[in-house]
Amino acid sequence: MAMAKPTVVLLPVWASGHFIAALDAGKRLVAALGTADFSLTVLVMRPPTPESASQVAAHVARGAAAAEPIGCEVSFHHLPAVDPPTGCTSVEYFTSQYIHLHAPYVRAAVAALPLPAAALVFEFTSTTMFDVARELGVPAYVYFASSAAMLALMLQLPAIHDVMMPEEFGEMEGQHVHVQGLPPVPASCMPASVMSRKSPSYADTVYHGTRLAEADGIIVNTAAELEPAVLAAINDGRCTGGRPAPPVYPIGPVIPLSDATSSDHECLRWLDGQPRASVVFLCFGSLGFLNAEQVREAAAGLERSGQRFLWVLRSSPPAAATASAHPLAEHLPPGFLDRTKDQGLVWTSWAPQREVLAHHAVAGFVTHCGWNSVLEALWSGVPMAPWPLYAEQHLNAFELVASMGVAVRMDVDRKRSNFVEAGEVARAVRCLVSGGDEEGEGRRARERSSAMRDACRSAVAQGGSSFASLHGAAAAVRHRLEAGVDGN
Ligand code: UDP
Protein backbone atom coordinates (compact mmCIF):
# COMPACT_ATOMS: atom_id res chain seq x y z
CA MET A 1 0.00 0.00 0.00
CA ALA A 2 1.29 3.47 -0.88
CA MET A 3 2.51 5.49 2.09
CA ALA A 4 0.68 8.78 2.74
CA LYS A 5 2.70 11.78 1.57
CA PRO A 6 2.55 15.31 2.93
CA THR A 7 0.06 17.13 0.79
CA VAL A 8 -0.41 20.67 -0.44
CA VAL A 9 -4.08 21.55 0.03
CA LEU A 10 -5.53 23.82 -2.62
CA LEU A 11 -8.87 25.63 -2.39
CA PRO A 12 -9.58 27.06 -5.85
CA VAL A 13 -12.46 29.33 -6.79
CA TRP A 14 -14.87 27.47 -9.10
CA ALA A 15 -14.89 29.90 -12.05
CA SER A 16 -13.15 28.19 -14.97
CA GLY A 17 -10.40 30.78 -15.38
CA HIS A 18 -9.53 30.44 -11.68
CA PHE A 19 -10.00 26.73 -11.23
CA ILE A 20 -7.86 25.56 -14.13
CA ALA A 21 -4.98 27.97 -13.51
CA ALA A 22 -4.98 27.36 -9.74
CA LEU A 23 -4.97 23.60 -10.29
CA ASP A 24 -2.08 23.96 -12.68
CA ALA A 25 -0.17 26.19 -10.23
CA GLY A 26 -0.78 23.64 -7.47
CA LYS A 27 0.61 20.87 -9.65
CA ARG A 28 3.67 22.95 -10.48
CA LEU A 29 4.30 23.64 -6.80
CA VAL A 30 4.07 19.94 -6.00
CA ALA A 31 6.33 19.12 -8.93
CA ALA A 32 8.89 21.58 -7.55
CA LEU A 33 8.56 20.00 -4.09
CA GLY A 34 9.04 16.58 -5.65
CA THR A 35 6.18 14.36 -6.75
CA ALA A 36 7.79 11.38 -5.03
CA ASP A 37 7.46 13.08 -1.65
CA PHE A 38 4.41 15.33 -1.94
CA SER A 39 0.90 15.19 -3.33
CA LEU A 40 -1.84 17.70 -4.11
CA THR A 41 -5.26 17.69 -2.46
CA VAL A 42 -7.87 19.89 -4.09
CA LEU A 43 -10.85 20.96 -1.99
CA VAL A 44 -13.74 21.46 -4.39
CA MET A 45 -16.52 23.85 -3.45
CA ARG A 46 -19.81 23.10 -5.14
CA PRO A 47 -20.25 25.95 -7.65
CA PRO A 48 -23.33 28.07 -7.04
CA THR A 49 -24.69 27.87 -10.60
CA PRO A 50 -25.44 24.80 -12.73
CA GLU A 51 -23.25 26.08 -15.61
CA SER A 52 -20.19 26.46 -13.42
CA ALA A 53 -21.00 23.15 -11.70
CA SER A 54 -20.80 21.25 -14.97
CA GLN A 55 -17.60 23.07 -15.96
CA VAL A 56 -15.96 22.23 -12.62
CA ALA A 57 -17.03 18.60 -12.96
CA ALA A 58 -15.26 18.51 -16.32
CA HIS A 59 -12.12 20.14 -14.90
CA VAL A 60 -12.07 17.68 -12.01
CA ALA A 61 -12.42 14.76 -14.41
CA ARG A 62 -9.54 16.07 -16.49
CA GLY A 63 -7.49 17.06 -13.44
CA ALA A 64 -7.97 13.63 -11.91
CA ALA A 65 -6.49 12.08 -15.01
CA ALA A 66 -3.52 14.31 -14.14
CA ALA A 67 -1.88 13.64 -17.45
CA GLU A 68 -0.95 17.24 -18.04
CA PRO A 69 1.08 19.21 -17.63
CA ILE A 70 3.06 17.56 -14.86
CA GLY A 71 2.45 14.11 -13.46
CA CYS A 72 1.64 14.55 -9.80
CA GLU A 73 -0.68 12.72 -7.47
CA VAL A 74 -3.87 14.75 -7.24
CA SER A 75 -6.91 13.91 -5.18
CA PHE A 76 -10.15 15.83 -5.16
CA HIS A 77 -12.23 16.21 -2.05
CA HIS A 78 -15.73 17.59 -2.56
CA LEU A 79 -16.79 19.85 0.28
CA PRO A 80 -20.37 19.65 1.52
CA ALA A 81 -22.78 22.07 -0.17
CA VAL A 82 -23.60 25.33 1.56
CA ASP A 83 -26.62 27.56 0.98
CA PRO A 84 -25.57 30.49 -1.20
CA PRO A 85 -25.72 33.82 0.65
CA THR A 86 -28.60 36.08 -0.28
CA GLY A 87 -28.73 39.80 -0.93
CA CYS A 88 -25.19 40.13 -2.36
CA THR A 89 -25.15 42.95 -4.87
CA SER A 90 -21.97 42.03 -6.73
CA VAL A 91 -20.33 38.87 -8.03
CA GLU A 92 -17.16 39.64 -6.09
CA TYR A 93 -19.00 40.05 -2.79
CA PHE A 94 -21.11 36.97 -3.39
CA THR A 95 -17.98 34.92 -4.18
CA SER A 96 -16.23 36.04 -1.05
CA GLN A 97 -19.24 35.38 1.19
CA TYR A 98 -19.95 32.01 -0.39
CA ILE A 99 -16.34 30.90 0.13
CA HIS A 100 -16.41 32.08 3.73
CA LEU A 101 -19.33 29.75 4.47
CA HIS A 102 -17.08 26.80 3.60
CA ALA A 103 -14.55 27.53 6.36
CA PRO A 104 -15.80 24.84 8.81
CA TYR A 105 -15.66 22.21 6.06
CA VAL A 106 -12.18 23.28 4.96
CA ARG A 107 -11.08 23.04 8.56
CA ALA A 108 -12.57 19.55 8.92
CA ALA A 109 -11.05 18.33 5.65
CA VAL A 110 -7.54 19.58 6.51
CA ALA A 111 -7.76 18.30 10.08
CA ALA A 112 -8.75 14.83 8.81
CA LEU A 113 -5.63 14.40 6.64
CA PRO A 114 -3.41 11.50 7.68
CA LEU A 115 -0.37 13.83 7.87
CA PRO A 116 -0.26 17.56 8.61
CA ALA A 117 -0.80 19.55 5.42
CA ALA A 118 2.39 20.97 3.93
CA ALA A 119 0.51 24.16 3.06
CA LEU A 120 -2.99 25.50 2.56
CA VAL A 121 -3.20 27.48 -0.68
CA PHE A 122 -6.21 29.66 -1.45
CA GLU A 123 -7.13 32.69 -3.53
CA PHE A 124 -7.34 36.30 -2.44
CA THR A 125 -11.12 36.21 -2.08
CA SER A 126 -10.66 33.47 0.55
CA THR A 127 -8.59 35.25 3.17
CA THR A 128 -10.89 34.14 6.00
CA MET A 129 -9.09 30.79 5.50
CA PHE A 130 -6.09 32.35 7.27
CA ASP A 131 -8.04 31.63 10.46
CA VAL A 132 -8.41 27.96 9.52
CA ALA A 133 -4.71 27.68 8.70
CA ARG A 134 -3.63 29.37 11.93
CA GLU A 135 -5.94 27.24 14.02
CA LEU A 136 -4.48 24.08 12.50
CA GLY A 137 -0.90 25.36 12.45
CA VAL A 138 -0.63 25.01 8.68
CA PRO A 139 1.35 27.52 6.56
CA ALA A 140 -1.01 29.66 4.46
CA TYR A 141 -0.18 30.70 0.91
CA VAL A 142 -2.25 32.83 -1.42
CA TYR A 143 -2.41 31.95 -5.08
CA PHE A 144 -2.98 35.29 -6.77
CA ALA A 145 -4.52 34.63 -10.19
CA SER A 146 -4.31 38.20 -11.41
CA SER A 147 -1.54 40.68 -12.09
CA ALA A 148 1.12 41.88 -9.68
CA ALA A 149 -0.34 45.35 -10.33
CA MET A 150 -3.64 44.18 -8.84
CA LEU A 151 -1.74 42.65 -5.93
CA ALA A 152 0.11 45.93 -5.36
CA LEU A 153 -3.21 47.77 -5.33
CA MET A 154 -4.80 45.26 -2.94
CA LEU A 155 -1.87 45.56 -0.52
CA GLN A 156 -2.15 49.34 -0.65
CA LEU A 157 -5.93 49.53 -0.44
CA PRO A 158 -6.14 49.85 3.35
CA ALA A 159 -3.83 52.89 3.21
CA ILE A 160 -5.54 54.33 0.11
CA HIS A 161 -8.86 53.91 1.89
CA ASP A 162 -7.62 55.96 4.85
CA VAL A 163 -6.39 58.87 2.76
CA MET A 164 -9.18 59.04 0.19
CA MET A 165 -12.03 59.29 2.69
CA PRO A 166 -14.69 60.35 1.94
CA GLU A 167 -14.21 60.31 -1.86
CA GLU A 168 -15.41 57.58 -4.18
CA PHE A 169 -13.27 56.36 -7.09
CA GLY A 170 -16.40 56.50 -9.22
CA GLU A 171 -16.69 60.25 -8.58
CA MET A 172 -13.03 61.24 -8.87
CA GLU A 173 -13.41 62.39 -12.46
CA GLY A 174 -10.02 63.23 -14.00
CA GLN A 175 -8.12 62.30 -10.83
CA HIS A 176 -5.47 59.65 -10.34
CA VAL A 177 -4.61 57.05 -7.74
CA HIS A 178 -0.99 56.45 -6.90
CA VAL A 179 -0.33 52.71 -7.01
CA GLN A 180 3.33 52.02 -6.26
CA GLY A 181 5.19 50.73 -9.29
CA LEU A 182 2.62 51.99 -11.82
CA PRO A 183 2.25 55.33 -13.58
CA PRO A 184 -0.58 57.37 -11.96
CA VAL A 185 -3.73 55.31 -12.45
CA PRO A 186 -6.91 57.16 -13.50
CA ALA A 187 -9.54 56.66 -10.76
CA SER A 188 -11.84 55.43 -13.55
CA CYS A 189 -9.57 52.37 -13.95
CA MET A 190 -10.02 51.06 -10.42
CA PRO A 191 -11.42 47.50 -10.09
CA ALA A 192 -15.21 47.23 -10.18
CA SER A 193 -15.37 45.94 -6.61
CA VAL A 194 -14.02 49.21 -5.17
CA MET A 195 -15.64 51.79 -7.44
CA SER A 196 -18.29 52.64 -4.88
CA ARG A 197 -17.18 53.08 -1.29
CA LYS A 198 -20.71 52.48 -0.04
CA SER A 199 -20.96 49.02 -1.58
CA PRO A 200 -20.36 45.88 0.53
CA SER A 201 -17.86 44.69 -2.08
CA TYR A 202 -15.71 47.75 -1.36
CA ALA A 203 -15.40 46.94 2.35
CA ASP A 204 -14.87 43.30 1.48
CA THR A 205 -12.02 44.07 -0.94
CA VAL A 206 -10.30 46.33 1.60
CA TYR A 207 -10.71 43.52 4.14
CA HIS A 208 -8.99 41.00 1.87
CA GLY A 209 -6.28 43.57 1.07
CA THR A 210 -5.61 43.96 4.79
CA ARG A 211 -5.47 40.24 5.42
CA LEU A 212 -3.13 39.48 2.50
CA ALA A 213 -0.29 40.70 4.70
CA GLU A 214 -0.80 37.57 6.87
CA ALA A 215 0.25 35.20 4.10
CA ASP A 216 3.34 33.04 4.48
CA GLY A 217 3.82 33.72 0.80
CA ILE A 218 1.91 34.98 -2.22
CA ILE A 219 2.27 33.00 -5.43
CA VAL A 220 1.41 35.23 -8.40
CA ASN A 221 0.54 34.31 -11.95
CA THR A 222 2.97 36.72 -13.56
CA ALA A 223 6.65 36.83 -14.43
CA ALA A 224 9.31 39.16 -13.04
CA GLU A 225 10.01 40.43 -16.56
CA LEU A 226 6.39 41.39 -17.20
CA GLU A 227 5.84 43.64 -14.20
CA PRO A 228 9.28 44.50 -12.75
CA ALA A 229 8.37 47.88 -11.25
CA VAL A 230 5.28 46.73 -9.33
CA LEU A 231 7.04 43.63 -8.07
CA ALA A 232 9.93 45.79 -6.84
CA ALA A 233 7.45 48.10 -5.10
CA ILE A 234 5.83 45.14 -3.33
CA ASN A 235 9.15 43.56 -2.39
CA ASP A 236 10.66 46.70 -0.89
CA GLY A 237 7.61 47.37 1.28
CA ARG A 238 6.32 50.44 -0.57
CA CYS A 239 2.85 48.87 -0.95
CA THR A 240 2.64 48.00 2.74
CA GLY A 241 3.58 51.35 4.22
CA GLY A 242 7.22 50.42 4.73
CA ARG A 243 6.45 47.16 6.53
CA PRO A 244 7.78 44.06 4.78
CA ALA A 245 5.24 42.42 2.50
CA PRO A 246 4.93 38.63 2.53
CA PRO A 247 7.38 36.92 0.16
CA VAL A 248 6.00 37.15 -3.37
CA TYR A 249 6.65 34.37 -5.86
CA PRO A 250 5.94 35.26 -9.52
CA ILE A 251 5.73 31.81 -11.12
CA GLY A 252 3.91 32.57 -14.37
CA PRO A 253 2.70 32.61 -16.89
CA VAL A 254 0.78 29.60 -15.64
CA ILE A 255 -0.99 28.67 -18.84
CA PRO A 256 -2.56 25.25 -18.59
CA LEU A 257 -2.11 23.13 -21.65
CA SER A 258 -5.18 22.70 -23.78
CA ASP A 259 -7.73 20.06 -22.94
CA ALA A 260 -7.10 18.40 -26.25
CA THR A 261 -5.57 19.44 -29.50
CA SER A 262 -8.42 20.98 -31.35
CA SER A 263 -6.65 21.69 -34.61
CA ASP A 264 -9.73 20.47 -36.46
CA HIS A 265 -11.85 23.16 -34.85
CA GLU A 266 -13.77 25.22 -37.38
CA CYS A 267 -12.24 28.49 -36.11
CA LEU A 268 -8.73 27.12 -36.67
CA ARG A 269 -9.60 25.74 -40.09
CA TRP A 270 -10.92 29.15 -41.03
CA LEU A 271 -7.71 30.77 -39.78
CA ASP A 272 -5.68 28.29 -41.85
CA GLY A 273 -7.15 29.92 -44.95
CA GLN A 274 -6.13 33.48 -43.97
CA PRO A 275 -2.85 35.25 -44.70
CA ARG A 276 -0.20 35.47 -42.02
CA ALA A 277 -0.76 38.19 -39.36
CA SER A 278 -3.95 39.47 -40.98
CA VAL A 279 -6.78 38.63 -38.56
CA VAL A 280 -8.00 40.41 -35.44
CA PHE A 281 -9.44 38.08 -32.83
CA LEU A 282 -12.20 39.42 -30.57
CA CYS A 283 -13.13 37.45 -27.46
CA PHE A 284 -14.43 38.57 -24.08
CA GLY A 285 -13.72 35.75 -21.66
CA SER A 286 -16.18 33.48 -19.97
CA LEU A 287 -18.52 36.24 -18.77
CA GLY A 288 -18.07 39.14 -21.17
CA PHE A 289 -21.28 39.66 -23.11
CA LEU A 290 -22.08 42.64 -25.31
CA ASN A 291 -25.58 44.13 -25.38
CA ALA A 292 -27.57 44.47 -28.59
CA GLU A 293 -26.64 48.13 -29.20
CA GLN A 294 -22.97 47.33 -28.69
CA VAL A 295 -23.14 44.35 -31.04
CA ARG A 296 -24.46 46.60 -33.82
CA GLU A 297 -21.80 49.22 -33.14
CA ALA A 298 -18.93 46.73 -32.98
CA ALA A 299 -20.11 45.09 -36.19
CA ALA A 300 -20.19 48.46 -37.94
CA GLY A 301 -16.67 49.15 -36.70
CA LEU A 302 -15.31 45.83 -37.89
CA GLU A 303 -16.88 46.24 -41.30
CA ARG A 304 -15.55 49.79 -41.58
CA SER A 305 -12.03 48.69 -40.62
CA GLY A 306 -11.82 46.53 -43.72
CA GLN A 307 -9.66 44.09 -41.71
CA ARG A 308 -10.17 40.38 -41.30
CA PHE A 309 -11.70 39.31 -38.01
CA LEU A 310 -12.66 36.29 -35.92
CA TRP A 311 -15.32 37.46 -33.49
CA VAL A 312 -16.50 35.30 -30.60
CA LEU A 313 -20.02 36.58 -30.02
CA ARG A 314 -21.73 34.59 -27.31
CA SER A 315 -24.99 35.38 -25.53
CA SER A 316 -25.19 35.43 -21.76
CA PRO A 317 -26.46 32.03 -20.51
CA PRO A 318 -30.05 33.16 -19.68
CA ALA A 319 -30.42 34.79 -23.11
CA ALA A 320 -28.91 31.76 -24.84
CA ALA A 321 -31.35 29.45 -23.08
CA THR A 322 -34.40 31.35 -24.25
CA ALA A 323 -33.42 32.54 -27.71
CA SER A 324 -32.61 30.97 -31.04
CA ALA A 325 -29.32 29.24 -31.87
CA HIS A 326 -27.68 32.52 -32.89
CA PRO A 327 -29.49 35.03 -30.69
CA LEU A 328 -26.94 37.82 -30.93
CA ALA A 329 -26.51 37.41 -34.63
CA GLU A 330 -30.02 38.83 -34.83
CA HIS A 331 -28.63 42.12 -33.58
CA LEU A 332 -26.02 42.38 -36.30
CA PRO A 333 -26.70 45.10 -38.88
CA PRO A 334 -28.89 43.81 -41.76
CA GLY A 335 -26.79 41.95 -44.33
CA PHE A 336 -23.63 42.11 -42.16
CA LEU A 337 -22.85 38.40 -42.28
CA ASP A 338 -23.33 38.34 -46.01
CA ARG A 339 -21.22 41.40 -46.72
CA THR A 340 -18.38 40.25 -44.45
CA LYS A 341 -18.38 36.57 -45.39
CA ASP A 342 -14.96 36.90 -47.02
CA GLN A 343 -13.68 39.26 -44.33
CA GLY A 344 -14.54 37.55 -41.11
CA LEU A 345 -16.07 34.78 -39.06
CA VAL A 346 -18.62 35.33 -36.30
CA TRP A 347 -18.41 32.42 -33.88
CA THR A 348 -21.31 32.09 -31.43
CA SER A 349 -19.99 29.51 -28.97
CA TRP A 350 -16.86 28.74 -26.95
CA ALA A 351 -13.71 29.15 -29.06
CA PRO A 352 -10.30 27.48 -28.60
CA GLN A 353 -8.73 30.77 -27.55
CA ARG A 354 -5.22 29.58 -26.75
CA GLU A 355 -4.89 27.84 -30.10
CA VAL A 356 -6.38 30.82 -31.90
CA LEU A 357 -3.87 33.18 -30.30
CA ALA A 358 -1.05 30.83 -31.26
CA HIS A 359 -2.18 30.74 -34.91
CA HIS A 360 0.09 32.50 -37.40
CA ALA A 361 -2.84 34.28 -39.06
CA VAL A 362 -3.69 36.25 -35.91
CA ALA A 363 -2.36 39.82 -35.83
CA GLY A 364 -4.08 41.23 -32.78
CA PHE A 365 -6.52 40.57 -29.96
CA VAL A 366 -9.42 42.72 -28.85
CA THR A 367 -9.76 41.45 -25.29
CA HIS A 368 -11.77 42.08 -22.15
CA CYS A 369 -8.41 41.88 -20.33
CA GLY A 370 -9.15 38.96 -18.04
CA TRP A 371 -5.68 38.12 -16.73
CA ASN A 372 -5.65 34.63 -18.27
CA SER A 373 -6.46 36.10 -21.66
CA VAL A 374 -3.71 38.69 -21.24
CA LEU A 375 -1.13 36.01 -20.37
CA GLU A 376 -2.25 33.81 -23.25
CA ALA A 377 -1.82 36.72 -25.65
CA LEU A 378 1.62 37.55 -24.28
CA TRP A 379 2.61 33.89 -24.42
CA SER A 380 1.96 34.03 -28.16
CA GLY A 381 3.29 37.56 -28.61
CA VAL A 382 -0.05 38.96 -29.83
CA PRO A 383 -0.60 42.72 -29.32
CA MET A 384 -3.90 43.70 -27.74
CA ALA A 385 -6.62 46.34 -27.84
CA PRO A 386 -8.14 46.43 -24.37
CA TRP A 387 -11.90 46.48 -24.00
CA PRO A 388 -12.33 45.93 -20.25
CA LEU A 389 -15.76 44.98 -18.94
CA TYR A 390 -15.76 43.78 -15.33
CA ALA A 391 -13.70 42.80 -12.26
CA GLU A 392 -10.15 44.26 -12.32
CA GLN A 393 -10.00 44.44 -16.11
CA HIS A 394 -9.88 48.25 -16.31
CA LEU A 395 -6.72 48.22 -14.21
CA ASN A 396 -5.24 45.48 -16.41
CA ALA A 397 -6.14 47.49 -19.51
CA PHE A 398 -4.39 50.55 -18.11
CA GLU A 399 -1.27 48.56 -17.28
CA LEU A 400 -1.14 46.95 -20.74
CA VAL A 401 -1.11 50.32 -22.47
CA ALA A 402 0.60 52.67 -20.02
CA SER A 403 3.13 50.41 -18.37
CA MET A 404 3.79 47.30 -20.44
CA GLY A 405 3.22 48.92 -23.84
CA VAL A 406 1.80 45.71 -25.31
CA ALA A 407 -1.59 47.15 -26.27
CA VAL A 408 -2.95 50.00 -28.37
CA ARG A 409 -5.33 52.50 -26.77
CA MET A 410 -9.04 51.89 -26.97
CA ASP A 411 -11.54 54.48 -25.82
CA VAL A 412 -14.03 52.60 -23.61
CA ASP A 413 -16.84 54.57 -21.95
CA ARG A 414 -17.13 52.97 -18.52
CA LYS A 415 -20.04 55.24 -17.58
CA ARG A 416 -21.99 53.81 -20.51
CA SER A 417 -21.61 50.09 -19.79
CA ASN A 418 -18.13 50.12 -21.37
CA PHE A 419 -19.47 51.30 -24.70
CA VAL A 420 -17.06 51.59 -27.64
CA GLU A 421 -18.03 53.59 -30.73
CA ALA A 422 -17.80 51.98 -34.17
CA GLY A 423 -15.10 54.44 -35.27
CA GLU A 424 -12.97 53.54 -32.26
CA VAL A 425 -13.34 49.81 -32.97
CA ALA A 426 -12.26 50.42 -36.56
CA ARG A 427 -9.28 52.56 -35.52
CA ALA A 428 -8.02 50.08 -32.92
CA VAL A 429 -8.43 47.11 -35.25
CA ARG A 430 -6.57 48.86 -38.09
CA CYS A 431 -3.87 49.87 -35.67
CA LEU A 432 -3.38 46.25 -34.58
CA VAL A 433 -3.08 44.91 -38.11
CA SER A 434 -1.28 47.64 -39.98
CA GLY A 435 0.61 49.40 -37.21
CA GLY A 436 -1.88 52.26 -37.41
CA ASP A 437 -1.39 55.96 -37.07
CA GLU A 438 1.66 58.07 -37.58
CA GLU A 439 2.76 57.45 -33.97
CA GLY A 440 3.25 53.78 -34.83
CA GLU A 441 1.22 52.73 -31.81
CA GLY A 442 0.39 49.31 -33.22
CA ARG A 443 3.91 48.67 -34.37
CA ARG A 444 5.25 49.47 -30.91
CA ALA A 445 2.69 47.21 -29.25
CA ARG A 446 3.65 44.40 -31.62
CA GLU A 447 7.35 44.80 -30.83
CA ARG A 448 6.72 44.89 -27.09
CA SER A 449 4.41 41.87 -27.26
CA SER A 450 6.98 39.96 -29.18
CA ALA A 451 9.62 40.79 -26.54
CA MET A 452 7.19 39.68 -23.82
CA ARG A 453 6.60 36.42 -25.63
CA ASP A 454 10.30 35.66 -25.38
CA ALA A 455 10.40 36.83 -21.77
CA CYS A 456 7.45 34.60 -20.80
CA ARG A 457 8.97 31.52 -22.35
CA SER A 458 12.39 32.15 -20.80
CA ALA A 459 10.82 32.83 -17.39
CA VAL A 460 9.21 29.40 -17.06
CA ALA A 461 12.06 27.47 -18.67
CA GLN A 462 14.59 25.75 -16.47
CA GLY A 463 16.75 28.41 -14.82
CA GLY A 464 14.31 31.23 -15.70
CA SER A 465 12.94 33.74 -13.21
CA SER A 466 9.57 32.03 -12.70
CA PHE A 467 11.21 28.63 -12.50
CA ALA A 468 13.52 29.95 -9.76
CA SER A 469 10.62 31.61 -7.98
CA LEU A 470 8.53 28.44 -8.03
CA HIS A 471 11.43 26.53 -6.53
CA GLY A 472 11.83 29.32 -3.98
CA ALA A 473 8.21 28.82 -2.91
CA ALA A 474 8.73 25.06 -2.75
CA ALA A 475 11.88 25.51 -0.65
CA ALA A 476 9.96 27.72 1.78
CA VAL A 477 7.17 25.13 2.11
CA ARG A 478 9.66 22.33 2.61
CA HIS A 479 11.68 24.33 5.12
CA ARG A 480 8.59 25.11 7.15
CA LEU A 481 7.53 21.47 7.16
CA GLU A 482 10.97 20.29 8.21
CA ALA A 483 11.18 22.94 10.92
CA GLY A 484 7.80 21.89 12.30
CA VAL A 485 4.71 23.99 11.93
CA ASP A 486 5.61 26.44 14.69
CA GLY A 487 9.29 26.45 14.12
CA ASN A 488 9.63 29.19 11.52
N1 UDP B 1 -11.80 31.14 -23.19
C1 UDP B 1 -11.81 30.27 -24.25
N2 UDP B 1 -12.78 30.41 -25.21
C2 UDP B 1 -13.72 31.39 -25.16
C3 UDP B 1 -13.68 32.29 -24.08
C4 UDP B 1 -12.71 32.14 -23.11
O1 UDP B 1 -10.97 29.37 -24.34
O2 UDP B 1 -14.55 31.45 -26.07
C5 UDP B 1 -10.78 30.95 -22.13
C6 UDP B 1 -9.58 31.85 -22.30
O3 UDP B 1 -8.63 31.22 -23.13
C7 UDP B 1 -9.10 32.01 -20.87
C8 UDP B 1 -10.37 31.89 -20.05
O4 UDP B 1 -11.34 31.28 -20.88
O5 UDP B 1 -8.24 30.95 -20.52
C9 UDP B 1 -10.91 33.23 -19.60
O6 UDP B 1 -10.17 33.66 -18.51
P1 UDP B 1 -9.89 35.20 -18.27
O7 UDP B 1 -9.12 35.33 -17.01
O8 UDP B 1 -9.28 35.83 -19.47
O9 UDP B 1 -11.32 35.85 -18.15
P2 UDP B 1 -12.60 35.51 -17.25
O10 UDP B 1 -13.43 34.59 -18.03
O11 UDP B 1 -12.09 34.92 -15.96
O12 UDP B 1 -13.21 36.86 -17.09
Automatic annotation (TrEMBL):
Xref: Gene3D superfamilies: Glycogen Phosphorylase B (3.40.50.2000)
Alphabetical keyword list: Glycosyltransferase, Transferase
Enzyme Commission number: 2.4.1.-
Pfam families, alphabetized: UDPGT
GO molecular function: UDP-glucosyltransferase activity
Alphabetical list of InterPro entries matching this protein: UDP-glycosyltransf_plant, UDP_glucos_trans, UDP_glycos_trans_CS
Classification via SUPFAM superfamilies: UDP-Glycosyltransferase/glycogen phosphorylase (SSF53756)
The family this protein is said to belong to: Belongs to the UDP-glycosyltransferase family.
Name of this chain's protein: Glycosyltransferase
Organism the protein comes from: Miscanthus lutarioriparius
